[in-house]
Design a protein that fits this description.
By secondary structure, the protein is α/β, with parallel strands linked by helices. The chain has three domains: 3-261, Glutamine Phosphoribosylpyrophosphate, subunit 1, domain 1 (4-Layer Sandwich), CATH 3.60.20; 268-463, Rossmann fold, CATH 3.40.50; 469-626, Glucose-6-phosphate isomerase like protein, domain 1 (Rossmann fold), CATH 3.40.50. Helix content is 36%, strand content 22%. The strands form four sheets. Strands 3-2-4-1-10-9-11-15 form an eight-stranded antiparallel beta sheet, covered by helices on one side. Helix 3 (108-117) crosses helix 4, helix 16 (470-479) packs across helix 19 and helix 17 packs parallel to helix 19 (591-608). The chain is globular and about 85 Å long. Bound molecules: 5-amino-5-deoxy-1-O-phosphono-D-mannitol. 5-amino-5-deoxy-1-O-phosphono-D-mannitol (M6R) binds at residues 320-323, 366-368, 371, 374, 417-419, 507, 622-623. 5-amino-5-deoxy-1-O-phosphono-D-mannitol binds at residues 320-323, 366-368, 371, 374, 417-419, 507, 622-623.
Length: 626
């Protein structure tokens, strides 16, 4: 997730862009940059590796620039490490065209190869640079080879629009992209496909950005662009077109948010926003990596040789906290394909590390990629000869530098300390990896792989359905808001989700909660049940459903107030006082769904207690101590 911004109008363009980037820094801040069209057909271009303040210092001596179009970007790296070369805006070969982009261009490798073959030279490792060279190539075609010829402003603007339109029509993936051309100094063109884009209508000019926080200081009048929209933005006009060039009507909306609400997309907390971002986050993780039609899993960037995958004797997961719960689910997914797996807290790993060898793949899972316990575990595994695969959300993090292979979860920055969307991204990554390994090892045949991938790509829609049940989940949570102890139970794939449900409550509500393997209840924990104690059971369809049902009955018999997370098929069987119903999916995929109501449940319990949800006491987002 990156932030893009754009402005054309009578204010100082630098000031408006820098101000916008400061507001968008929550979307990512490893590097940033701006570009402004000068009236003399040249560009100002500034990029820095680091925060917006550095950029501000670089441009502060600049002469006034009123009326010029400008675009800006604050980056959260996905393709290419955080560096000045990879920072946006990116320019074409002529240095006259510039773009900023948020999203992932899936088909960029092929497009880039063709562009290089036809003489374009690339200066960054980004997928974004492909867009600007594509516009350049189209512009050259339209202008008959060279676009340097003099022409009336109207013709130049028409050509620029047409080149931009043709270029974005060739892109696959997700993008909110804005471009300027130094020959049309008062024009910004933006487009949207699966990434947010809002266009602001102001008194002293117009705006384009990833979200309204970038320009809220200047206007509350916005158009929310839709997928497949192109916006042509000038000082006094905003026009919308589709990718075929037909004009579109878009409704102007007056928003009522203040700046803090705008950053949170109108939600009260980042945690709630991030819970709601999960369908998009999972889509981003899966994008371009599942090929349901040909029964294969293509993970282009992974690079683990097939012979190594085939000869692997074991997989060892290491992680902490929520990431460890993803690891426990991972063990069960890989295990179901006959691959021996172990999971260990990174902080408890030392003794196991000594037992590893070159036939072990260690999968280290970490949102931040900076958790010291996980990094030390990786060093110990490496010393024993194991290969390391990092599953992380953070490009260029320490973990990626110390690993042999990396799979990025691509969820965008997670601000709330309680991990939600990053967890879903970790799970989705593990499903892809397990599918990929199972196909290579021959434990998943073509038609099974096709079925597996088809189930995976349906998950974002199922998650949306659960999120739509928020009111009911909130009401249920509020009935438990005075409880001082919670017990979460389940079996097999959902046992780690019971642990995660309990962790979420602990960290944001400061209430005691335990996660237990339901089958363990009779071996001790059942003794703690007192009349009215909340027992939350994940009771979705599986061959173990009757057993979970039995555990719920045992709890109920001792006075527990049982809440069951059920699916459309298990609802008739599971017996509880309260229910939250989710869509049915095969058990292996159910952790992707069962965790969603538990995240919301924890959120609403914390809310009713008035806790500081995004910054819980005693916790830090990234734990870089042992
Ligand atoms: O950045 P990491 O994924 O390595 O962080 C690991 C844990 O510190 C983290 O998951 C922590 O447990 C979260 N606050 C849970 O919500």
């Amino acid at each position: 997730m990156c932030g893009i911004t754009g402005y054309v109008g009578s204010r100082q363009t630098d000031d408006v862009l820098i101000e916008g980037l400061c507001r968008l820094e929550y979307r990512g801040y490893d590097s940033c940059g701006i570009a402004l069209a000068q009236k003399n057909g040249k560009l100002y271009l500034n990029r820095v590796s680091g925060r917006v303040q550095l950029l501000k210092n670089q441009v502060k001596e600049r002469p006034p620039q009123h009326g010029m179009a400008g675009i800006g970007h604050t980056r959260w790296a996905t393709h290419g490490a955080p560096s000045e070369e990879n920072a946006h805006p990116h320019t074409d070969c002529t240095g006259e065209l510039v773009v900023v982009h948020n999203g992932i261009i899936e088909n960029y490798p092929g497009l880039k190869e063709n562009l290089i073959d036809s003489g374009h030279s690339f200066r960054s490792e980004t997928d974004t640079e492909t867009i600007v060279h594509l516009i350049e190539a189209e512009l050259k075609k339209i202008c008959g080879g060279s676009f340097r010829k003099k022409a009336p402003a109207e013709t130049l603007e028409r050509n620029f629009f047409e080149a931009f339109r043709r270029a974005v029509s060739k892109l696959e993936g997700s993008f909110a992209v804005s471009a300027i051309w130094s020959r049309c100094p008062e024009l910004i063109i933006s487009a949207r496909m699966h990434s947010p884009l809002v266009i602001g209508k102001g008194k002293d000019g117009n705006f384009s950005a990833s979200d309204v926080s970038a320009f809220l200081k200047y206007t509350k009048q916005v158009y929310f662009a839709e997928d497949g929209d192109i916006a042509v933005i000038k000082k006094d006009s905003i026009l919308f077109y589709d990718f075929k060039g037909n004009t579109l009507e878009r409704k102007l909306t007056e928003i009522e948010w203040d700046a803090a609400m705008a950053e949170k997309g109108g939600y009260d907390h980042f945690m709630l926003k991030e819970i709601h971002e999960q369908p998009a986050a999972v889509e981003n993780t899966l994008r371009g990596r599942t090929m349901p039609m040909d029964g294969d899993f293509v993970i282009r960037e992974l690079g683990i040789p097939s012979y190594f995958i085939k000869s692997l004797e074991q997989i060892q997961f290491v992680a902490c906290g929520t990431a460890n719960h993803a690891a426990l689910v991972g063990c069960r997914i890989f295990g179901s394909f006959g691959i021996p797996c172990f999971a260990e807290f990174a902080s408890e790993f030392s003794d196991r590390a000594k037992m590893l060898n070159g036939k072990t793949l260690v999968i280290a899972i970490s949102q931040s990629g900076e958790t010291l316990d996980t990094i030390i575990a990786v060093r110990e595994a490496r010393a024993a000869g194991a290969k390391i695969l990092a599953v992380t959300n953070t490009v260029g993090s320490t973990l990626t530098r110390e690993s042999d292979y990396t799979l990025y979860t691509r969820c965008g920055p997670e601000i709330g300390v309680a991990s939600t969307k990053a967890f879903l991204g970790q799970l989705a990554s593990l499903y892809i990896l397990a599918g990929h390994f199972a196909v290579i090892r021959g434990t998943l045949d073509d038609s099974q792989a096709e079925e597996y991938a088809a189930e995976l790509v349906k998950l974002p829609r199922h998650i949306e359905k659960i999120l739509a049940d928020e009111k009911n989940i909130r009401k249920t949570a509020e009935t438990f808001s005075k409880s001082e102890h919670f017990l979460f139970i389940s079996r097999r794939f959902n046992y780690p989700i019971a642990l995660e449900g309990a962790l979420k409550i602990k960290e944001i509500s400061y209430v005691h909660a335990e996660g237990y393997a339901a089958g363990e209840m009779k071996h001790g924990p059942i003794a703690i049940i007192y009349p009215g104690m909340p027992v939350i059971a994940i009771a979705v369809s599986s061959e173990n459903l009757e057993l979970v049902n039995g555990n719920m009955a045992e709890s109920k018999a001792r006075g527990a107030d049982v809440l069951a997370i059920v699916d459309e098929k298990s609802a008739a069987i599971a017996k509880a006082a309260h229910y939250i119903k989710i869509p049915y999916v095969p058990e292996i995929f159910s952790p992707m769904l069962t965790v969603i109501p538990l995240q919301m449940f924890a959120y609403y319990i914390a809310l009713s207690k008035g806790c500081d949800i995004d910054k819980p006491r005693n916790l830090a987002k990234s734990v870089t101590v042992r």
